[in-house]
Write a structure and sequence with these properties.
single chain, 706 residues, alpha+beta, Arc Repressor Mutant, subunit A, OB fold (Dihydrolipoamide Acetyltransferase, E2P), five-stranded antiparallel β-sheet, 33% helix
Length: 706
């Protein structure tokens, strides 16, 4: 039977079209007395799905199901679009005629996927889920026609419907609903909201919030829950089973302007090494599971930070009130008590609900002055209740830093910007944000607590929300190797037979690049080659920190994954069984991980866009100024230059004298002189323009700055 079935399939594959029963019998030379065996073979093939039979009885191979791919439309241009595959990979080209009216942000199913030397292309088979049809942008006028210049990646202006235009003029920042004209593929913008002049970074930030779906106002029911929770006094019932740590030398350390103080520390020396206490606001005590406030916090996922405001995850009644660990006040906390040896290896840990009373409201700049010996008498007096704890914490953090370096944790060179605003909210200054010894100390202590929380959860085998950072993609590592080679560094640490690199390999490259003119590009390329950190229910490890177990436990006021694991760990410390926790929290942990990862991407995108607007606002006040900067990026068309204040702008090659050609890697090279404009090289530039609405800053070449 099997032999006959194979013969039938082989014949159909050879003929490539349907065949009648009589012709099949003739081709296979099967006599009438053996026709029954042929019928049985056909029935078997049909039930297995290896053949199909048409209505008129013709036999054929089943039609092959065309492969499809899920993707999201990420940009629109006149005549074409690009879609980004859901599972990663290269963006896919789609001709406008094959777009099926899909819009930017739509989740689509792609079909007829083709490969060519220029890259992949496809057709939109169907729209699986429509994205928002509301976009923000700036009004412009072209030949007397009012148009919307979108903030999203729509590469052309959209005519504005005159029906609802009131006082909005060119140069206004607005939100519009995008519609297609009746019986036409052309789009039209219908203004639904006006923000103000697009030349204001504050106004642009308002639009950025809406474009990214970040809500300022809390729903009334969530506010009511927060107010009710915040009004509750600490009772004897609340203290039952809690560790009373009010006699410990505990303090908070934050920026001078911080109001949501969610972590406090205590460190003491022991015979074996150190006892670290990290005491975190007990947010899960105040936020009822599945309540309106919990659902809103889960939806927001994180607090979002801009130059002129913070959009909190929790209402201020909790974030700045009951949950904030203000000095001199009794506060409910969740404490990690961690024992470490003299080499900062974790010996043991315990997690307990607790109550603390912070002795001092610490400030980073003040603690730094204590550490460097410049603190005056008043400051030394302020910190005297916790000075021994602070010095023990400083020593412990120093040992942890050395340990992380030995293990190969990747310490990337990244500079954050600090914006100075006047009373009207206009940016009047930019400077690099400095991270002193106190900031680094708190970072290492928090990492240790996060690590212990993940170890605790994994050892207990309970549902959890881990912070994960996966192995770099091999293709990106290959691109990194090219850049390392071009910079004249030794790329051999990145070359492994199995294609896998370790954090130590990355650290090796960073050490080589230290002090090198290409240090910045190497650091940037390393960052690009690494996977994006995210939240997951599986403990796959954290590549950048060189840790096998990691989570976010220390900031439940401003991050929902921390709140989620506080809730799960609270049940665990109450001696709930692992099986019961799996039944109760498996779905919750998965949902929290997914939503929190999405919220983080949304927040980071909004924060970066707003930062660009504030930089442009500041540089718009310095048109014509000549400044010194360093080449931070090189493209076919020109170079990017970063100024000492962290603002970055673009220098087109047509403003640079000479016959420069891009080498495809790190430099623009003058074909006649061999002069190189390469990453890390100083350059004098002149500020030409700065567009606040787009955040674009343009420079012109003024000369070398050796």
């Amino acid at each position: 039977m099997r032999e006959l079935e194979d013969k039938i399939v082989h014949l159909l594959e050879k003929r490539q079209h349907s065949i009648s029963m009589s012709m099949l019998q003739k081709e296979l030379k099967i006599k009438d007395k053996k026709k029954k065996a042929l019928v049985q073979a056909l029935e078997s093939l049909k039930s297995d799905g290896r053949i199909s039979v048409t209505k008129d009885g013709r036999i054929r191979l089943p039609k092959k199901k065309e492969p499809t791919q899920e993707a999201v439309i990420v940009s629109l241009s006149r005549g074409f679009a690009f879609a980004r595959p859901a599972d990663g990979g290269e963006d896919i080209f789609i001709h406008a005629d094959r777009l099926q009216s899909a819009f930017i942000g739509d989740r689509v199913s792609l079909c007829h996927i083709r490969q060519s030397p220029k890259g992949p292309s496809a057709d939109v088979g169907s729209i699986l889920k429509k994205g928002s049809r509301f976009v923000t942008g700036t009004l412009a006028e072209q030949n007397g026609v009012l148009e919307l210049h979108p903030d999203v990646a729509i590469r052309y202006n959209i005519p504005v419907s005159r029906k609802n235009v009131a006082e909005e003029k060119p140069g206004s920042k607005v939100q519009a609903r995008i519609r297609r004209k009746a019986h036409s593929s052309e789009m039209q913008a219908e203004i639904v909201k006006a923000y103000g002049p697009a030349g204001s970074a504050r106004v642009c930030t308002d639009a950025i919030l809406d474009q990214n779906g970040i809500h300022i106002e809390f729903p009334p029911e969530a506010l009511a829950e927060a107010e009710a929770a915040a009004s509750q006094k600490i009772t004897e019932a609340d203290l039952k089973g809690r560790l009373d740590l009010r006699n410990l030398s505990i303090c908070t350390i934050d920026g001078a302007d911080a109001k949501d103080l969610d972590d406090a520390i205590s460190v003491s020396r022991t015979r074996k090494g150190y006892r670290l206490g990290v005491h975190i606001a007990d947010v899960s005590h105040y936020v009822a599971e599945n309540g309106a406030l919990d659902q809103e916090a889960k939806s927001r996922g994180t607090s979002v930070y801009f130059a002129d405001r913070v959009v909190p995850m929790l209402p201020e009644a909790l974030s700045n009130g009951s949950c904030s660990l203000n000095a001199g006040e009794d506060k409910l906390t969740f404490s990690a008590i961690i024992e470490l040896d003299k080499e900062a290896n974790i010996l043991s840990y315990k997690f307990r609900k607790s109550i603390i009373r912070s002795r001092v409201r610490g400030v980073y700049s003040e603690v730094n002055s204590l550490f460097d010996g410049t603190a005056d008498h008043d400051l030394r007096k302020k910190y005297s209740p916790v000075i021994r704890s602070l010095h023990a914490a400083k020593d412990l953090a120093g040992i942890l830093k050395e340990q992380f370096a030995r293990n190969g944790a990747v310490d990337l060179d990244s500079t954050e910007s600090e914006f100075l605003l006047n009373d009207e909210g206009v940016c009047i200054g930019i400077r690099p944000r400095k991270s002193g010894e106190a900031e680094q100390m708190i970072e290492y202590l928090m990492i240790t607590a996060n690590r212990a929380a993940a170890m605790f959860a994994e050892s207990a085998g309970i549902p959890f929300v881990y912070r994960v950072h996966e192995q770099p993609n091999p293709d990106r590592v290959a691109a990194l190797i090219q850049v390392v080679d071009a910079a004249g560094l030794d790329s051999r640490p990145l070359k492994h037979r199995d294609g896998k690199v370790s954090p130590k390999d990355f650290s090796n490259i960073l050490k080589q690049a230290s002090g090198n003119s290409a240090q910045k590009v190497i650091s940037h390329q390393l960052l690009r080659s690494m996977a994006k950190a995210r939240y997951d229910v599986n403990p796959v490890g954290h590549f950048g920190l060189a840790l096998s177990d990691y989570c976010h436990f220390t900031s439940p006021i401003r991050r929902y994954p921390d709140t989620a694991i506080h809730r799960i760990l609270s049940a665990l410390v109450k001696k709930k069984k692992a099986g019961d926790l799996k039944d109760r929290y498996s779905d919750f942990a998965g949902e929290a991980a997914k939503l929190s990862s999405e919220a983080e991407v949304r927040a980071m995108s909004a924060e970066r866009s707003a930062d660009d607007c504030y930089m442009a606002e500041y540089m718009s006040q310095h048109i014509g100024d000549v400044c010194r900067g360093v080449i931070s990026g090189v493209t076919q068309r020109g170079v990017f230059v970063e100024l000492e204040n962290t603002a970055e702008g673009f220098v087109p090659m047509d403003s640079v004298p000479g016959d420069f050609r891009f080498d495809g890697k790190l430099s623009q090279v003058d074909a006649k002189t061999g002069n190189r404009l390469t990453i890390g090289r100083p350059m004098q530039i002149r500020v030409v323009s700065a567009d606040v609405a787009s955040g674009r800053i343009d420079f012109a070449y003024e000369g070398p700055a050796e």
